[in-house]
Amino acid sequence: MKEVVCKKEELSPGNIMSTNLGPIPIVLCRTPDGEFYAFTDKCVHQGAAMSEGVVCGAPAPTDTPGEYHYVKEGEILRCPWHGIEYDIKNEGRMLVDPNRKLGNFNVSFEGDDVIVSTRK
Amino acid sequence: MAESKKKRPIIDMDIHERVTYDELLPYLDNPWQRYIKDTNWVQEKHLPYPILGAAGLDRADAKVPDGRPAGNDLSFMQQQLLDDVGHEAGILTGAGDPSPSSMNGWYEMAVALATAYNDWQIENWLEKDDRLYGSVHIAAQDPASAVREIERVGSHPKMVQVLLPIDDRPWGDPYYHPIFEAAERHNLMIGMHHQEPPNYYGKFPRYFVEWHSVMPNTHMIQISSMIFNGVFEKYPNLKLAMIEAGFTYIPAFMKKMDQQYKVLRHEVPWVKRMPSDTVKDHVRVTTQPVDELTKDEFLKFIELMDSDEIVCFSTDYPHWDYDSPFRALPPLGEELEQKIFAENARNLYPKLPTKVGKVTQ
Ligand code: FES
């Protein structure tokens, strides 16, 4: 399945939008460096719509209690309900459990058109 | 849990409606109205850290589309929760602010706020949606005024419980018994919802994640206080709903109380039954926030409780740790699911309607 979902300029860097690929609800993400990523619009935890979530960064794990390093600004998608974080640039994997991830789609372009397709 | 929405009756024991202080003004007399209007008075808050959900206390998608805070608009709640999930009934538990019972001092203001809140709740929620049932808010620090408020609104057909805060005096204390007496007189149950301040006579732990992990502690204190102070012997029709601390602590706690009772019962001779039997007959707890069990684990806890009537479902809508009726629990079999999602709550609150029609699936 393959579909034009929007024009590039309709989604500015650092933002997300909901769209559809046929019957499948999709969350389209654009990271601050301008790249596009597409995932199923459903949190693997309890099923919230990820497109209602928050784009943010996250504190990196540290070996020192009391220390904070905020990283990946604009590259983390946080669920609107319980706040589980997914790494947009790492195939939508959960930060706390990288074995679990959002469903993935391919994004390609034709001119200004953004095309989402199912993975082969 | 299956992805498709499963049609079943749901009685949700924890839905938060939210008032703004402006909305309460018409329900307040002076000088209370003037205190709020002239000085922008709002209740002191206690939590020393932000709530680190995606949007603070609330689900990020539950904010009212016109910008008002989550839980502030009936039609949006109907659309997002009651219609979408297909609630048969939902019990409103307030939003904690204002929380008249948690005010330190200035009881007169607390009493005025409780009265205003109840009138606002009845007019704007209970009388506008058949599915919604309410909690009587009181200023519990002043039991005489609390009793007056229960007398004033407790017979409203859609008020089903008196909501008590978890604060710094455990609820078995005879100081509070007139409140139980009034509740029993009006066929109201007692609801306790986890609330600030969370630790009985304690300080906050250093991190929110610690606080949120130990909520059952305060519930155990309240349940044992009511049991060992003989509240349920004295008020045999009274029941207690412990809301928002999950249920997995219950089996170990029942065992512990029974064992203590066997060896120490001479201290509390007015307690005539095994505490676990009192829990089975008088205490109900909500699933939320779920402990994410497998089916086998879940059933094991039910078996250890030796009762499938204690656990009731709640969503905690619109808060960040909301539980989906379709995804939060593992599949448990039709009979148990019907009890947890609806029948246990129906049996707890005598003012809820009896079941109509047949369950469809
Ligand atoms: S539904 Fe996404 S974190 Fe729970």
Descriptive account of the structure:
The complex is a heterodimer of chains A (120) and B (361). Chain A is mainly β and 120 residues long. Chain A has a single domain, classed as Rieske [2Fe-2S] iron-sulphur domain (Rieske Iron-sulfur Protein, 3-layer Sandwich), CATH 2.102.10. In chain A, 0% of the residues lie in helices and 48% in strands. Chain A is built from no helices and ten strands. Chain A starts with a strand and ends with a strand. Chain B is globular. Chain B has one domain: Metal-dependent hydrolases (TIM Barrel, Alpha-Beta Barrel). Chain B has an eight-stranded parallel sheet with strand order 1-2-3-4-5-6-7-8, sandwiched between helices. Chain B has 361 residues and is of the alpha/beta class. The two termini of chain B are 14 Å apart. Residues 357-361 of chain B have low confidence and may be disordered. In chain B, 38% of the residues lie in helices and 10% in strands. Chain B has helices spanning 21-24, 32-39, 74-86, 107-126, 143-153, 177-185, 208-213, 215-228, 231-234, 250-264, 275-282, 295-305, 334-348; strands at residues 11-15, 89-92, 132-137, 159-164, 189-193, 240-243, 283-286, 311-312. Chain A binds chain B through residues 45-49, 52-54, 78-83, and chain B through 3, 52-55, 59-61, 320-324, 326-328. FE2/S2 (inorganic) cluster binds next to loops of chain A. Chain A: It comes from Salicibibacter cibarius. Chain A: This is Rieske (2Fe-2S) protein.
